[in-house]
Each structure stands twice: as structure tokens, then as C-alpha cells.
Amino acid sequence: MPDAQDTQPSRAHVVLRQIFTGSAIISVLAVFMAVVVGAVLIAVTDEQVQEAAGYFFSRPSDMLVAVWDAVSGAYSSLFQGAVYNFRRPGFENGIKPLLETLTFATPLIVAGLGVALAFRVGMFNIGGRGQMLIAAACAGWVGFSLQLPAGLHLILAVLAGVLGGAVWGGIAGVLKARTGAHEVIVTIMLNYVAFYLVAYLLRTPGALQAPGQNNPKTAAMESTAVFPKLFGDRYALHLGFVLVVIVTIAVWWLLERSSLGFRFRAVGENPHASKIAGINVNRMYLYAMVLSGALVGLAGVAQVLGTVTTGFGADIDAGIGFDAITVALLGRSKPWGVFFAGILFGGFKAGGFAMQAAEGIPIDIVLVVQSVIVLFIAAPPLVRAVFRLPPPGADIAARADTAKVGAL
């Protein structure tokens, strides 16, 4: 009989099996499949492709060339608008799209971290829009109404925004902990409350509306309350991105290394068992929503103190509160996964505009790609079936079977 040690799979085989049965590969393949779907849509909607399709059977090569030109041109523009533009002279000009991507990614990452933290505790924070609006209103009011020294003014504005988001998220946490109200319903309703509250304040002189103006818009932020540009006024990337990197590290440490993070994960896995083990589940729900709201609120702060510093309206959230859900899903609710997912979606935003301008491709194609990513992320068995990947746990089962055979 063969020895059990001899029948064990090699280390390389085990590593490869873990890679292809893990969640990371599903995210990568989901993005790949979404890009393929986007390519099909680009080809179908292209006028040259449609024209060549009319005489496909007489000259099929024309249609294939038209498809290649449409798809390659679109994705080339997407790359050049998101990463590096080879058409611009000089490195300092060519790298500008990457810095635009990081600028778009800044609020997406931190809002995604907020949603991901709630996910890890078993809660669904759908209230990103409301938390961003309240945070933007708080940070913006401090930013344009107070006259303070440069460093102090910026710190106070950031803290005001984070506190506003934390309070707005904490409302859902309190209702969940005290009454059992479902956080999805509560956070959705709070989105509407925040929107109409901020819209009212923007139309009220002496509140958020700029003095002497009839439009529902705030005054410009004071220069002392604006995130400094990291590489000068030539580029849009600001200090908020560095803050987001620090926050990502802090959230990773909180979830993976701290005792509070352990309790968060335990409640997320099984709240009933956690309660039996002595964890105050309701308190964890409250803490999680407060921290989640604070993180999403920081995205609103990045918008008003970094991106839109000339005054903002009720649309300052720019859909980021809902895009953050997709970012958290693609990042598998892991801090660094969310970080890179946010950069990917920032690239989609930056490159999508370039693709539309250069090739005339509707920006809606990018939105479709993002939506398809969510679809495939939500259906891992579909991705595994398409690429014929082994199911999760297959490696463990195979090793167990091998051990049994070796023991006979």
C-alpha cells in the first residue's frame, strides 16, 4: 500500500488549487467577463459594424475588421483615459490620466470601506448617499463659513464631516440595536431624509446657500480648508488620497488584528453564537454603523474639500454612495480588495469619459460593465461553470480522500 505521505499532492498543486478555488480569482474573472460583455455591446452598437454586417456573407472579413477596430479603439481610449495617454508629449502629460483615476477612486475607496465594514458585521449599509450628503454639508459649512488658520481649518472641516456621517449612520445602528429595525429599510429612508434636508438648507439663506445667490449652491470653500494638491495645480490628485491610504491600513488593522475586529467578524459569521459567547451583539451593530457612516462620510468630505471646492449642490454625492456597494462586493469586503476595486472603478470613470470623447462610445457602456461585474460577483457558481473551476473546498475534500486511501 502506498504511504500517506507519498500520496499527498505537491505544494505547487495545493497553492494553485487554493488560488483557483478562492474568492479573489472569482473577482478577477468577473471583471474579465464583464469586459467581454462590454466588447460585445460596443461592437453591436457601432455603426461601421452594423453596416458591415449587412453584407457579412459576401465579405465577412470586413465585419471582423470593423468589430476589431470598434472594440480595440474603445478599450484603447479607456486605457489612455485611465492609465497613460501615449498621445500626449512627455511623461508628465501622459501620466495625468492615472492621477485622474486616483482622484476619482479616492471617495470610492473610503465609501467602499464603510460599506465593507458593515458587510463584515452582517449588516447592509445602503445609506451611503445620505451619509455622504450630511458629511458634505457639515464639512462644507465649516469649510466656507469659518475663518481659521490653514492646518486647523482643514482638520476641523474633516472632523465635522466624519462626525456628521457617523451620526447619520449611527441612527440606523441605534434603531437596529434597540428596536430590531432592518438597516436596509432605515438607511434607504435616511437617504431621502438627508437629500431633502440638504436641499432645503441649500435654498435657505444663512444656512448652506451662498450669500447673494438664488441657486441652491454653497459658497466656495476657503483655501485654508481645501486638501492641498499632491503634485501642484496641474494635477487634480489631492491629499485626500494619502488620507484614504492611511484609513485603508487602519481599517485592515481594525478588522484583522484588533479585538473589536474579531468581535465584528464573529457577529457577522453567527450573531446567535456570538451572543452565547458573551459578545454584546447590539453594541457591535451600533459600533459598526457608526464607523461605517464615518468612513462613508469621509467620501463626502473628499468631494467638497478636494474635488468640488467651488461650492456644491444636492448632487455632490455623484452616485458614489451606491457605487461603493459594488466596490465593496468586488473587493470581497476586504480592505485591500476594496482599495484596488476602488481604483479599478475610478479608472472606469476617468477612462469612460475619454472613451466617449474619442470614440463616441456611450458612457452607459461603462455602467453596463460595472453592473455585469456585480451580476457575476453575486453568482460565483456561474463564473465557476464558465471557466470550469473546482468548487470551494474541493482541495480539502481531495486531500481528505487521499489521506483515507493512504491509510488503507
Describe this structure in words.
It is found in: Cell membrane. This is ABC transporter permease. The chain crosses the membrane at residues 20-44, 65-86, 98-119, 131-148, 154-175, 184-202, 235-255, 284-305, 337-355, 361-383. Keywords: Cell membrane, Membrane, Transmembrane, Transmembrane helix. InterPro entries: ABC_transp_permease (IPR001851). This protein has 408 residues and is mostly helical. Helix content is 73%, strand content 0%. It is built from 18 helices and no strands. α6 runs parallel beside α10 (239-257) and α6 runs antiparallel to α13. The N and C termini lie close together (7 Å). Mean pLDDT is 87; it is low at 1-7 and 13-22.
Q: Secondary structure elements and their pairing?
A:
Elements: H1 11-21, H2 23-45, H3 47-53, H4 60-82, H5 91-94, H6 96-120, H7 128-145, H8 150-179, H9 183-202, H10 239-257, H11 259-269, H12 271-276, H13 281-307, H14 320-330, H15 335-359, H16 364-377, H17 380-387, H18 394-407
Helix pairs in contact: 2-4, 2-16, 3-4, 4-15, 6-10, 6-13, 6-14, 6-15, 7-8, 7-9, 7-13, 7-14, 8-9, 8-13, 10-11, 11-13, 14-15
